[in-house]
Amino acid sequence: MSPVRSAYIHIPFCRRRCYYCDFPVSVVGDKPPGGSGAQINGSNSGTIAQYVQVLCQEIRQYVSSGELLQTVFFGGGTPSLLSVEQLNQILTALDQQFGIATDAEISMEIDPATFDLAQVKGYKAAGVNRVSLGVQAFQPELLQVAGRSHTVADILMAVDLIQQAGFTNLSLDLISGLPHQTLEQWEESLEQAIALSPTHLSCYDLIVEAGTPFSRQYKLGNTPLPSDEMAAEMYRTAQRLLAANKFEHYEISNYAKPGYQCQHNRVYWKNRPFYGFGMGATSYLYGERFARPRKTWEYYEWVKQEGRREKAVGEDERVRSQTRVGKPALDLLDTLMLGLRLAEGLDMAWLIEQFGEEAIARLWKCLQPYLQDGLVAIVPAPKDDQLPTSSHLRLTDPEGFLLSNVVLTTIFEEFE
Amino acid sequence: MTDVPVSRIRNFSIIAHIDHGKSTLADRLLQATGTVDAREMKEQFLDNMDLERERGITIKLQAARMNYTAQDGQHYVLNLIDTPGHVDFSYEVSRSLAACEGALLVVDASQGVEAQTLANVYLALEHNLEIIPVLNKIDLPGAEPDRVKQEIEDIVGLDCSQAILASAKEGIGIPEILESIVHLVPPPQDTVSQPLRALIFDSYYDPYRGVIVYFRVMDGKVKQGDRVRLMASRKEYQIDELGVLSPNQVRVDELHAGEVGYIAAAIKAVEDARVGDTITLATAPAPEPLPGYVEAKPMVFCGLFPTDADQFEDLREALEKLKLSDAALNYEPETSSAMGFGFRCGFLGLLHMEIVQERLEREYNLDLITTAPSVVYRVTTLKGEVLYIDNPSKLPDPQHREKMEEPYVQVDIITPETYVGTLMELAQSRRGVFKDMKYLTTERTTLIYELPLAEVATDFFDQMKSRSRGYASMEYQLIGYRENPLVKLDIMINGDPVDPLATIVHRDKAYSVGRALTEKLKELIPRHQFKIPIQAAIGAKVIASEHIPALRKDVLAKCYGGDISRKKKLLQKQAKGKKRMKSIGTVDVPQEAFMAVLKLDS
User: Fold this and answer.
1) Using the beta-carbon criterion (under 8 Å), do A404 and B579 form an inter-chain contact?
2) What count of CB pairs under 8 Å joins A to B?
3) Closest chain B residue to A271 measured between Cα atoms?
4) What CA–CA distance (Å, rounded) separates A411 from A359?
5) Residues of B in contact with A402 (CB under 8 A)
6) Is B553 close to A232, i.e. CB distance below 8 A?
7) Which of B528, B553, B560 to mutate to test the interface with A (most CBs of A within 10 A)?
8) Do B551 and A207 touch (CB under 8 A)?
């Protein structure tokens, strides 16, 4: 197995479900604010504690590939519903099982109004060095429309607490294209976010996923959702405004101050392997993506089974990888679909080395129309018509990013 | 198979509406006579094709020979000749009926007489068949045998005092039906001594034995090894195999007047042994063929194009093979500037078209674009030539046309009285000319309209069904050509005329059709990177226009570890969809768009 240096941990608890969310989460309800983390999570401590126990059990069923973890990411759900103690349990399990590098990036998603100063200090002491705060918008009416359980004041308070706790690496999440959202409101959100001096920003154009309250509410044709034209304009606005404030647009939806790109997420886009632990989490081992059960009891059952078989090493992934025959074209598609999300794009020489000159020549040929109309760029531009072997292939910003599916669909059509 | 005198043969068919229980009744008769025992009984033995089973209708007719010992102690041979149950195949029905002396008229005791049934009853009466009314599904709580009897008497004029009350499902009335067949259906005429004349009522293609021909011997006799001549196709064959259908094929040495059987004679295609043709002996031919033979004429035409140009040869081969088993299918190569190479195909009707299309896609694995169906227009040019135009793009320009005529049909609709208003509205909106309305009973009426076939060949049937919640039924027959002010409506996508989208419409409807069609296309054609104008025009004059706005964003905002597999599937689906589209210039057009004219809300 190629070295695995990243782990994703899913914490599936939320106070309530946001209207756009299709993640596997378990809703635990609103808690009185204030007090220690343990108090906040008081009535659910049983549920969460049990989950943490099973999660640690799952972690201990794996053996290391021999590499220390360079990135750990707590995602959710709302990982800030974990007590400091629970977080420590998980990090300890990871460290004992795989070892965590001293300079590892340890990220945690947290939500406003779910933590106090003691708690966030505790997270920092436990080793978390990057926090990603779920802001989404700075307008009370939009927070309400999105089904968020916090206020604008909660956002400002949360940033203050995070900074007091000594965190220097802070990311904020924003959503554009929300129902009823105007371009002015979007600009305002961006400006307010910039004013809080984050090192990183994720700006997501709303995706109305099937099965979410949004998808039931907003059927095509009759919707307060901004038009595609408007959503595209919001995207361009973010790109322009953030560039002016020295953020690099390093991925379709992500911006960072120099040196602050999210190392964990880059692992996904570079199509490198990672562990995934917890209900609904996906791992990518032995070249296989494996999604864990999305229901709590099914996940518990699955962990138990895995333990009983005493087959420790990502057995599901390993078995699946053995049954598959070579699918180089599919790996190429994964690589392109992910790699082209990054502004740096993909190195032609590396592509040729990985997938052979014939496949890459085919790719080059089917991309010609997009090189012509400016959705795709090759840098530096080759001098002749030959297959460029020492340039980077990338989507242009913003137009290539905005129409990335058009380019990808053409590539999929060519190779499938 | 025992030799049986002509006097103890009974040939009959079953006339019934879809769902009124014909197939179940046939199954019961086969069981009751011990022709097929319960163990080998497949549900609904007579419906062989998958497509028929799925749709619950009989397209291909079949036959079965039953041995029956009647209450008088005599042994009889009963031949059941099945009939197809759809208006597209009324000629085949007429040939099947011509092979019989009697018919069971099966009517659902809770429903009543339907249009198709009525049409077939009249056909049977024309052939002087003895008709035995059977009220089926008598066991159902909603059964109203007295009302339905009255209805049959009123509508058909048949005496129903002796009507048999039956439930094919429960086996009720089966012995009575068998006895009635023996006593009421007359035996065939004994013409064994005359020269052989046998009526072909069905045939199918068997890849190992060639065409298998089903026939009824009308006069004379035929023996294994005889050299026979088909009087219409003028072809001669040596009989390899002669047999009866019980209902599986069983070989016999000889069949004589009144009997029903099959032959295999290395016949290459069903068009060499068409339904209605007469088989006679090559050595001692009959002077005259049997009456009633008509070569099937296609009524509806459409273009079939492979989505992938590389599949053109595969499509040609598939059509050649289908033609072996389907004499009514017509095709010739067609080239379209928008679509490339394909075929112009002619069909008996819309159902026939759908069947062929589905078989091509299912059995031959072809990805096809079907253009909207067109009828055959009769155009007289200024020079006095009469042209038959089955493709709107081939229509001569107005300045060369003296007149233009279109085929009309008489449509008989039987409906519960409640839906009369909405159905009249439908017929009216389809340029229908009201002819008559008759009350069959106090609740049921028959509506008679004359309509342009072009209007019936779109979604008329579906509309009739949906407006009447499935209760109305219809039947139509061609009544000739009529002159109308017709215009050709051209469609331009991104400035280029797309000939397969061209359609012929009445001048008064051109604007509304043009508007509805451009709107529909706007809905069906996906956004591209550029703005796409869609226009409808008569000659050089644009009468409706829309545009598809340019695609502004198509991006997956989030793609992290857990999203990858799902997002990839999304892209795969999108790529697959795009592959199935037809590129017209720089615009990718999905298959549904070519049928858009059938799905207008007007």
Assistant:
1) no
2) 102
3) B561
4) 11
5) 552-555
6) yes
7) B553
8) no
User: What is the C-alpha end-to-end distance of chain B, expressed in Å?
Assistant: 60
- Residue A224: the pLDDT is 87
A228: distance to nearest CA of chain B, Å?
6
Closest CA to B4 of B64, B65, B63: B65
**A327-415 topology per CATH:** Arc Repressor Mutant, subunit A (1.10.10)
Asked if A282 lies within 8 A of B551 by C-beta distance, the reply is: no
Rounded distance between C-alpha atoms, residue A183 and residue A173, angstroms: 17
Q: Over range B517-533, report the average pLDDT.
A: 95
Architecture (CATH level 2) of domain A6-269: 2-Layer Sandwich (3.30)
What single-letter DSSP state applies at residue B442?
S
The tens digit of pLDDT for each residue in B83-112 reads: 876 667 778 888 999 999 999 999 999 988
CB of B583 within 8 Å of any CB in chain A? no
CA–CA separation, A153 and A159 (whole Å): 10
Domain boundaries of chain A, sorted by first residue: 6-269, 327-415
Please tell me the distance from the alpha carbon of residue B390 to that of residue B286, in angstroms, as a whole number.
38
- Reply yes or no on whether the pLDDT at A307 is more than 90: no
Distance CA A3, CA B479 (A): 80
- B400 in reach of chain A (CB within 8 A): no
Stretch (H or E) spanning B317: helix B312-325
Enter the ipTM: 0.90
Please give the biggest Cα pair distance in chain A.
Answer: 68
> B351 and B88 in contact (C-beta within 8 Å)?
yes
Report the C-alpha gap between A157 and A151 in whole angstroms: 10
**Reduced 3-state DSSP string for B23-57:** HHHHHHHHHHCCCCCHHHCCCCCCCCCHHHHHHCC
Determine whether A67 is exposed, middle or buried from the number of CB atoms within 10 Å of its CB (0-12, 13-18, 19+): middle
pLDDT tens, residue by residue, B209-243: 889 999 999 999 999 999 999 999 999 999 999 99
Instruction: Indicate yes or no: CB of A229 within 8 angstroms of CB of B564.
Output: no
**Is B551's Cβ below 8 Å from some Cβ in A?**
yes
B530 touches chain A (CB under 8 A): no
Probe site for chain B from A173, A225, A282 (most B CB atoms < 10 A): A282
Which tokens belong to A202?
A: 């994720």
Cβ within 8 Å of residue A363, ≥6 positions away: A332, A336, A351, A411, A414, A415
Place of tokens 């947290």: A110
Integer Cα distance of A202 and A72 in angstroms: 18
Sort out which chain B residues have CB atoms less than 8 A from A291's CB and list them: 562, 565
Could you say which DSSP state residue B167 is in?
Answer: B
CA distance A25 to chain B (A): 14
Q: Does B564 touch chain A (CB under 8 A)?
A: yes
**String of DSSP letters for B190-203:** --TTSPPEEEEEEE
3-state secondary structure (DSSP) of residue B378: strand
**Cβ–Cβ below 8 Å for A8 and B568:** no
B569 → chain A, closest CA residue: A412
Question: Model pTM?
Answer: 0.75
Q: Using 50, 70 and 90 to split pLDDT, how confident is the model at A317?
A: low
Name the residue facing A402 among B549, B555, B568 (closest C-beta).
B555
| Greatest CA separation for chain B | 87
CB A12 within 8 A of CB A50: no
Task: Categorize the per-residue pLDDT at B42 as very low, low, confident or very high, splitting at 50, 70 and 90.
Answer: low
How many residues are given for chain A? 416
